[in-house]
Design a protein that fits this description.
This protein is of the alpha+beta class and 712 residues long. Helices cover 15% and strands 39% of the residues.
């Protein structure tokens, strides 16, 4: 009897990748989704008969090498959720084999071997990922438009700015670009879990919830030498300013090459990279932006903000409110929780607080957050505070006494959004996270959450003498707000208005201490611009402007509401020019000391708009043909800008980042640059551009380019 020997094989890479919605993965590797069959052709040295025994074995391999950690033998039956091989033998040396994998198989890189009476022969390698198209997979997503957006889309919009000025910044995920999937698996193999117990870690890679938790830890560099090093200091020397990144691919490739954290990132960078590796593995993933996002460090579902009488922050608490914060969501069935908690799951790689001893977060059920079920794993309590914490403002008097002010129940989580499906815009999803502010349901949920952590409504963690006390609300006697008419851009003189209103029938003397500071978006840096004080008298039922110095005289207005007084706040460009951080944000605070009542603290953050890039394609985009893209930038400042650099990247358009430089750009001078690109993938592609100089670092734009396979 002739020993059966394999002489040739064909993985039908293009056909199988296309059938598995994996055609976009660049390279000659076979990428398949679990729970779905794929075909290979094999040729032997002799005819294959039905009685010949062929055994197929898949062995999971890791980037760290070593012996076999997991091995599966394909059965000859395709019944059930199993590893199965169906052999179409007809007495010919050439056969077709249909391989099927379980819908809950471990994802990763596999070596495929075939065993015959002539021995064992290695056929090749395939990479298996999650399958949102397979109903049996726990990441199954029924809507095809959502699968196209959350799995196959390489372009994203990440919202930044602040609640009243939302800015959608482009991001290139590039999950299908060369070697990115390999790097993603290498990232799993670098985790603490793998290093501690490789076999147990590998076994759990069938569970998308487990994968999310590991990735949330590995994308930040805390604990495990992960991908991105965070920096919120305002000083980014020794690395790249977080605002300058256009996408994830260069970050991931740099980490893979050096196995050292890439410097630097902030929340949207962490979220962008996390989306890339998650989508590369087949997880339906999106980025969420939460405006006025609470960082509750002590877990009491409240944020305590301390200020001195001049409006300067006092570090009595590590709690904070970020102007915005970005995290990720993945769609999955939660097999570890009640079925009602399935759906979108929050996971976050920005290192804020430890969970299970390391910097990781999630997956947290979005529904658990909305319903206040803060006892559900993982990290639901922390995420609930991010979107729905109460804010308690405390003014520290000159004698050290703490005056507890009003509790703001509506500031946190003012607007929550994500990129819209199928369009280059974003949508409001606040109601997916919380009931409407001011509604009975919202307060009921908040009180329910307090009860689950052993606290009762109406109490705060401190009082003026440092002991717990009831946070009884006093009837407000004066209201205040800081507004900024119109929009403002970098280089403008800023005019804000503090509006005070007497709510009583008694005249009120108010001493107002106003401060302004340039900040980073999470307020970790505060560079003082100015402090000034004024005393005003609010007459009962009217405001007449008496007692205001000439520099802060009231603005006359026939349409001014009764009982209101407007105090202008002016900040000249010359005052903030050298203090502005790369986030282009100025925080204005007013502490209003009200006669016979107490302190009212009012604040607002002004996000200054940046100038724009003007882009256009110079001719049609044809696969494999050179084309040009024109980019213009005009210096809007009254002074020259220096060290001008334009960078561009785009999956399917540019294989490596393009860069053009200018030494100086004079006031009102326009820089015109032509970028030469050669599209290598057809379809709707995006070219992302970032302009930086000594005064701006994150002037961004993107251009949609339809790449055809032939000239029209």
């Amino acid at each position: 009897m002739t020993a059966l020997q394999l002489t040739n094989y064909d993985f039908h890479i293009n056909e199988n990748k296309s059938a598995h919605n994996c055609a976009a993965y660049i390279g000659n590797d076979l990428v398949v989704r679990r729970g779905q069959e794929f075909n290979i052709s094999m040729t032997f040295n002799a005819p294959v008969q039905n009685g010949d025994r062929l055994t197929f074995i898949a062995t999971l391999v890791t980037s760290s090498g070593g012996g076999s950690l997991l091995e599966y033998t394909f059965s000859d039956s395709s019944s059930g959720n199993s590893w199965a091989a169906k052999i179409n033998a007809n007495g010919s040396p050439s056969i077709t084999v249909t391989l099927t994998t379980p819908a809950d198989a471990v994802i990763g890189r596999y070596l495929l071997n075939v065993q015959t009476n002539g021995g064992t022969r290695r056929i090749g390698e395939f990479m298996m990922i999650f399958n949102p198209w397979a109903p049996g997979d726990s990441v199954y997503l029924a809507d095809e438009a959502e699968r196209q957006e959350y799995v196959l889309q390489e372009f994203g919009l990440i919202c930044v700015g602040e609640a009243s000025n939302q800015i959608a910044a482009p991001w290139n995920y590039g999950q299908f670009q060369e070697n990115i999937l390999y790097i993603t698996f290498a990232l799993l193999d670098s985790s603490l879990n793998f290093r501690r117990n490789a076999k147990e870690d590998i076994r759990q890679r069938s569970n998308p919830a487990y994968i999310c938790r590991v990735l949330s830890a590995m994308v930040n560099s805390k604990d495990d030498n992960g991908v991105v090093g965070g920096n919120w200091s305002g000083d980014y020397s020794g690395g790249t300013n977080p605002s300058a990144w256009n996408g994830s691919t260069s970050i991931l490739r740099s980490w893979n090459q050096k196995r050292q954290p890439v410097k630097f990132g902030q929340c949207w960078v962490f979220a962008g990279v996390l989306s890339t590796v998650s989508r590369a593995m087949g997880l339906p993933t999106r980025i969420i932006t939460n405006y006025n996002s609470a960082h509750d460090t002590n877990g009491n579902l409240s944020v305590e903000e301390y200020y001195d009488v001049y409006g300067e922050p006092v570090m009595e608490s590590d709690d904070s409110i970020w102007n915005f914060h970005c995290w990720n969501e993945a769609w999955m069935r939660r097999n570890d929780l009640d079925a009602s908690y399935s759906g979108w799951q929050i996971f976050d790689s920005t290192p804020q607080e430890m969970s299970d001893g390391i910097y990781e977060l999630g997956p947290t059920s979005q529904r658990a957050v909305k319903e206040g079920d803060v006892d559900k794993q993982y990290d639901t309590r922390f995420v609930f505070s991010e979107v729905n914490a109460d804010v308690i403002k405390v003014v520290v008097q000159l004698n050290g006494r703490k005056a507890v002010g009003e509790t703001d129940r509506t500031k946190v989580g003012q607007f929550i959004c994500t990129k819209a499906v199928g369009t280059d815009s974003y949508i409001n999803i606040t109601n997916e996270y919380k009931y409407p502010e001011g509604s009975p349901e919202e307060r009921q949920i908040y009180n329910k959450a307090l009860g689950l952590i052993g606290m009762s409504a109406g109490f705060v963690a401190f009082s003026a003498d440092g002991r717990s006390a009831s946070n009884q609300r006093r009837e407000a006697e004066v209201s205040g707000a800081i507004s900024v008419p119109g929009s403002r851009k970098v280089g403008d003189d800023i005019e804000a208005i503090l509006t005070l209103k007497n709510l009583t029938q008694k005249a009120k003397n108010v001493t107002v201490n106003i401060s302004a500071a340039a900040i980073v978006y999470n307020k970790a840096v505060r560079r003082k611009i100015f402090n000034q004080s004024v005393t005003v008298t609010l007459s009962p039922n009217e405001g007449n402007g008496r007692g205001i110095p000439a520099c802060l005289s009231c603005i006359p207005s026939k349409r001014k509401k009764k009982y209101e007084k407007e105090i202008p706040i002016k900040i000249a460009y010359s005052q903030y020019e050298k203090l502005l951080t790369t986030d282009n944000m100025i925080n204005v605070t007013a502490v209003c000391q009200i006669e016979d009542w107490g302190d009212l603290l009012v604040e607002n953050t002004i996000a200054l708009n940046k100038p724009s890039l003007v882009t256009k394609a110079l001719g049609p985009a044809v696969l494999g043909k050179p084309m040009g893209v024109e980019v213009k930038f005009t210096n809007p400042l009254p002074i020259p800008v220096k060290n001008c650099v334009l960078t561009a990247e785009g999956s399917g358009l540019i294989k490596s980042e393009l860069k053009k430089s200018f030494e100086v750009l004079e006031p009102d001078q326009t820089m015109k640059v032509t970028l030469d690109i050669e599209p290598y993938v057809s379809g709707d592609k995006k070219l992302l551009m970032n302009f930086a100089c000594d005064k701006f670092v994150d002037v961004k734009a993107f251009l949609s380019i339809i790449v055809t396979e032939m000239s029209l």
